[in-house]
Amino acid sequence: MIRAVLFDIDDTLVDTRGAFRHALSTVAARYLASAPSPDELTLTWRTDAGGHYRAFTRGEMSYREQRMRRANELHALYGGTQLDDAAYDTWNEDFERAFQEGWIAHADALQCLEELDAAGIPYGALSNAAVAYQEAKLAAAGLGRVPMLVGVDTLGFGKPDPRVFALAAERIGFPPQQIAYVGDELDIDAVAATAAGMRGVWLDRTGDHSVGHPVDVARVTSLSELVHATTF
Fold first, then answer.
1. Cβ(184)–Cβ(7) under 8 Å?
2. CB 127 within 8 A of CB 137
3. Residue 231 pLDDT exceeds 70
4. What are the tens digits of pLDDT across the range 22-60?
5. Structure pTM?
6. SS3 sequence, the chain?
7. Among 51, 92, 93, 123, whose CB has the most other CB atoms within 10 angstroms?
8. Cβ distance 146 to 138 under 8 Å?
């Protein structure tokens, strides 16, 4: 019996991919000599071949270090000059301004929250970004009703570590087995939540059912399916 829902934020509630696309197009026009298509840029950034963001979520490097490394790898691929500390600060101001301009909710997010409110189901967020940053993102996207319960800065590390799920469960006030955790990344969201004792729900917006998933993980292609796909 599910009595509460925890959400990932980026690309679950908020269209972060679209925001990155806008930010990357902005810095590409200014800093890159041979900018590819916005879609290719976004794929390169989000793939993060060096694994820097996940190293940050494990507490192995700072937020600034991971983003600066990713920026310089992008420049190396597409003809930009390498950024020292001062040049990166300017780059990041341009990037962050454009990124925040793109913070909007997914079209199905508000309806899902309203359905949970109507059913009397409490919800909150567990994210691999800093609490204050994600609170600002939710507010900008019109989703300020979602409380940020745990961020990567709460314990100094993030998902898939089971301790962050345990703390989020404690803060929302239900045992893990009575909580559904919904996120767009199969491994660090749905699978990790399941391993932590929750009902892991993979939000697969691509709808590509050729990609398999563990049988103990629920799969939805839209948040509009959540209430019907999960037993409350």
1. no
2. no
3. no
4. 999 999 999 998 878 999 999 999 999 999 999 999 999
5. 0.93
6. CCCEEEECCECCCECHHHHHHHHHHHHHHHHCCCCCCHHHHHHHHHHCCCCHHHHHHCCCCCHHHHHHHHHHHHHHHHCCCCCCHHHHHHHHHHHHHHHHHCCCECCCHHHHHHHHHHHCCCEEEECCCCHHHHHHHHHHCCCCCCCEEECHHHHCCCCCCHHHHHHHHHHHCCCHHHEEEEECCHHHHHHHHHHCCCEEEEECCCCCCCCCCCCCCEEECCHHHHHHHCCC
7. 123
8. yes
Q: How far apart are CA 93 and CA 88, in angstroms?
A: 8
Instruction: Using the structure block, give the residue that is written with the tokens 């049988």.
Output: 215
> What amino acid occupies position 225?
E
Mind listing the pLDDT tens digit for each residue in 55-110?
999 999 999 999 999 999 999 999 999 999 999 999 999 999 999 999 999 999 99
